[in-house]
Amino acid sequence: MIGALRGVLAEKDPQRLLVEVQGVGYEVEVPMSTFLALPPAGSAVRLRVHHVLREDASLLYGFNSEEERALFRALLRVTGVGPRMALSILSGMSAEAFEAAIAADDPAGLTRIPGVGRKTAERLVVEMRDHFRGGTRTRSASGAVRTPREEATDALLALGYKPAEASRLLELAGETADTTEGLLRAALQGAVR
Question: Which residues of 75-100 are buried (b: 16+ CB within 10 A; e: fewer)?
Fold first, then answer.
């Protein structure tokens, strides 16, 4: 999988970028927040990338920061939210404003984003609540804010558990472990009981 691109910004428009890396041009879709922060065409650029491999396409989504990419990936886990809607959400409001709307339990604020209706906004508030919740947060070397509980949740989601199931399993695991591995082990042991 492609995790980042560093090259020359060959073409730049709000819908799509063309990043040339050693003679190969990669088409990358970006949210408006990333597009507005880009240097002019012909400049060097580095983007964090989310790579989607489908039967009929290989798609790249680029982001200026690890926080934006992490939020994009979290949005993809919400029922009914695909890459297009996730880009629309990141284009419609900053990551901080989105987190504030979720924390304030404000689906009405989310409906101002083009393409986000009332039901989708309510689903976003419910399913993203746990993403922003957590105890003491620490920054990783990349600058992303992560807790062992968040990392264990991501691991359970990657294993195919639904967000509600993952939260329930981690609640059952309780405070028996303080590392990601310990939480994951306790949650999986609780799942087979």
Answer: bebbeebeeebbbbbbbbbebeebbe
Distances (CA, A) of 149 to 80, 137, 180: 24, 10, 6
User: H-helix or E-strand containing 121?
Assistant: helix 118-132
What is the number of domains present in the chain?
A: 3
46-70 per-position pLDDT tens digit: 999 999 988 898 999 999 988 899 9
Per-residue confidence (pLDDT) for residue 62, from 0 to 100: 95
Task: Supply the Cα-derived Rg of the chain in whole angstroms.
Answer: 18
Q: What is the pLDDT of residue 145?
A: 52
Q: How many CB atoms lie within 10 A of CB 106?
A: 13
Helix (H, G, I), strand (E, B) or coil at 10: strand
Region label for 15, one of left (φ > 0), alpha (ψ between -120 and 50) or beta (otherwise): alpha
SS3 140: coil
Specify the CATH number for the domain of residue 189: 1.10.8.10
Q: How far is CA 42 from CA 19, 23, 55, 76, in A?
A: 10, 14, 32, 32
Domain-terminating residue out of 40, 63, 86? 63
Does 125 share its domain with 161? no
